[in-house]
Amino acid sequence: MSERTIGTAGPRGQQRTVAQRDARFGQLLLAPTLLVVVVVVVLPILWTFVLAFQDLRVIDLRRKGIFGSFTLDNFAAVFTSPGFWTALRTTLLFSVVGTIGSIGVGLIASLALRRGFPGRTFVRASMLLPYVAPVVAVTFVWQTMLNPQFGIVNAVGTSVLGWDDPVAFLSQRSTPVSVFGLEIDVPVALLTVMAFEIWRYFPFAFLFLTARISALPGDLEEAAVVDGATVSQRFRYVVFPQLLPTIALLAVLRFIFTFNEFDDIYLLTGGAAGTQVASVRVYDLLTARGDIGAASAQALVLAGVLVVLLAVYFRFVGRPTEADT
Amino acid sequence: MSTRPWTRDRIENVVFGVLRWVVIAVLVLATLLPFYYMIILSVRRLDEVVQRPGLLWPGSFDLSTYVSVLASPDAGGQGFVVFLRNSAVIALLTVVFTLLAAIPGAYAISRLEFFGRRQVSTLFLAVYLFPAILLAVPLFVFFSAVGLRGSRVGLLVVYVAQTVPLSIYMLRNYFETVPVSLEEAAAIDGASRWTIMRRISLPLAMPAVVSNALYVFMIAWNEFLFALLFLAEDRPRWTVSLGLAQLAGSIEIPTTVLMAGSVLLTLPIIVLFFLTERLLVEGLTSGAEKG
């Protein structure tokens, strides 16, 4: 550590002063950041707990002030409303499919681009576009492409692929599809937002897996080639085990972010047609109904469910080590 | 030609060799097609789009969509010039304030031993992973109660608070790669901590600072939820993201005009990204290689 070595330059008394001065300086340097984070993030979150126990509506804000009497009604309302359980199920389904899908596609992409070819730099960069582009722009393009009247997907579907009718991808709750004579209800809008989620976030997994793959030591794989291992065997027994820590970390990160996702679904469907996830429900409670207490309670329950799920995950899969982060 | 037997190894090499190119082609198509479609649609006429929806090249060429989307509402346009300016101002200010707080903060966490250092690191990671919607409720209520909703200063503070933790995390990794011996040499020459940070560590960390600045700019430029909550009722203050989202539901505005708006929203980000792609990727994944 630098401060200790610096300290040895002087006598013992000075050593302590250097360390003390460093400590004071460190706290001073962090003070502005800490102040902003505490005021804008920590205090508001603590305040959410207070709000969740009050009967408070947006229209009363100016008149009643922000401190009313305490009540448990909000939590009771959250747990007894059928909308909450539906939203929770949708959120879980969306998160699991979105997480597995984006990591799976990201892994396939990073493996396909592993060996060099002319134009790889450009292809790699374009893989990241869905992730860096503004969410409002890409959701708008998807909406337009999937539009039943003049979207290109339905134009190709009806004229080339022989669909009977255009599909309302973003506003149709479900449609019966017969598979081997069985009628199955397919949740159209939910599958579409899942596809969007995978499209937009596979670059995130791709980025981290590519970095990891390019840092893999080559000698293990060379030894496997000498031993006669095929491509798939080398992946299964040599490459994949070395990627597992990265995949485990990505799974946690992607699950957290997908579970909290708001923008994508709000912009694509507004939460209609069976796509209302928990965060969109919080927004609706807050703005459409102006029910602050219910929105706070719902948001806290959402965070609580996430914490419980993560605790279970860490309990059974193990905590990512310091080296992974 | 070859008399080699069809062993499993040979079959797999052929299959995966072909599959690799199929995957690359599908991925390139899937990632680039929406952006290509965006540009094409922004220069077509709406009636022609409705007549030939499957067309993948401009059947008509009409740049008046851009004039229409940029012009002020008084001149019959959508006022995107103002939105672009709003977005640029707030994104640049976010970058400035975030870096002013994050550079000293990251230096302190990576180099100085002090009480509470670990706790602060954990707090920042938690803030980064925190659901934005949970934060949105109390901030919305607070800003409404004190009558600050619609204030761009409020939005700026929220953006800075959300980007600083991530920024410190990215910069900290980089500061740690700067050799300690350089700082020691300066310390022996009598330089203070402040001088060491400014004259030695900061110049060496410049690549990380630049990539970090770009990342923060992108986050602020693309941000939607808080802009929606704070500024939705105040059209002259809309950012481009908010403006496009608010107008997208309207049936009076032709889709081609809005598509021009969405090109204007995306273009700065894509240009910035391709100019600095390598720097940005290194900054984002620093630490991931260590596995």
UniProtKB/TrEMBL annotation, chain A:
Domain ABC transmembrane type-1 positions: 88-313
Gene3D superfamilies noted in UniProt: MetI-like
Pfam family, one: BPD_transp_1
Membrane topology: Multi-pass membrane protein
Keywords: Cell membrane, Membrane, Transmembrane, Transmembrane helix, Transport
Location of the protein in the cell: Cell membrane
TM annotation in the entry: 29-53, 65-85, 91-113, 125-145, 237-259, 295-316
Family statement drawn from the similarity comment of this UniProt entry: Belongs to the binding-protein-dependent transport system permease family.
Record-given protein name: Sugar ABC transporter permease
Organism: Pseudonocardia charpentierae
TrEMBL record, chain B:
Chief location: membrane
Membrane association type: Multi-pass membrane protein
InterPro entries: BP-dep_ABC_trans_perm, MetI-like, MetI-like_sf
Compartment annotation: Cell membrane
Domain ABC transmembrane type-1 span(s) in chain numbering: 84-276
Keywords, ordered alphabetically: Cell membrane, Membrane, Transmembrane, Transmembrane helix, Transport
Source organism superkingdom: Bacteria
Transmembrane segments: 21-43, 90-110, 122-146, 153-171, 253-275
Similarity comment text for this entry: Belongs to the binding-protein-dependent transport system permease family.
Protein name (Swiss-Prot/TrEMBL): Carbohydrate ABC transporter permease
